[in-house]
């Protein structure tokens, strides 16, 4: 039941046609078979020296950070009261999932920092290339959406190592970006191409 609800939610947020537009863009650009997956929540957490958990640089945006902490405290208090009133144990409503980790000035930051303004992020990969593409909000009918825009691209041998099984991109400096593609609909799409443990059938199984 929960998976059906998640699939319904995903389908409501991601209109049909956006994936196909990204696939066509990158197939024409790379001249290779392409697998395209929709990113879920890209408001992810950082575990990188010199960065706060929200990805901002330590020592900068202090005023905005001050007011955000106040709003977060109020929100957490309201959430806690609501949870207690319904017999639930209060949790951490603003806790971020750590998706970016590595040393100071980690190579993964180049990708992670570019995701902040993206409205509809898609990972596109081929045998020799990787890219993140912005389609704009996926609530919009593709016919009314702006053209897909590449916001990050890497080609072998400079491209990070991709593991679909672990849902990670890993750079030579050891930094990691954990792919936010946990939606059941995206995992189902990926299974058309992936064979355990990490064999990729680029033209489908």
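^ Assign residues to that structure.
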């Amino acid at each position: 039941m929960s998976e059906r609800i998640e699939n319904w939610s995903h389908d409501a947020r991601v209109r049909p046609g956006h994936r196909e537009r990204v696939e066509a863009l990158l197939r024409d650009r790379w001249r290779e078979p392409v697998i395209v997956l929709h990113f879920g929540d890209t408001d992810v957490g950082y575990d990188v020296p010199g960065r706060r958990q929200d990805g901002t640089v330590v020592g900068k945006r202090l005023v905005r950070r001050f007011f955000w902490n106040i709003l977060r405290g109020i929100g957490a208090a309201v959430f806690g009261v609501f949870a207690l009133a319904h017999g639930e144990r209060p949790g951490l409503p603003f806790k971020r999932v750590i998706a970016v980790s590595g040393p100071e000035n980690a190579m993964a930051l180049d990708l992670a920092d570019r995701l902040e303004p993206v409205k509809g992020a898609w990972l596109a990969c081929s045998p020799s290339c990787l890219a993140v593409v912005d389609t704009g909000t996926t609530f919009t009918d593709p016919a009314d959406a702006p053209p897909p825009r590449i916001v990050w691209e890497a080609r072998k041998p400079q491209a990070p190592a991709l593991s679909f099984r672990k849902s990670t991109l890993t750079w030579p400096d050891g930094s990691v970006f954990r792919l936010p593609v946990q939606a059941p609909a995206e995992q189902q799409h990926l299974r058309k191409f992936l064979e355990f443990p990490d064999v990729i059938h680029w033209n489908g199984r």
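Confidence is low (pLDDT under 50) at residues 1-11, 89-94.
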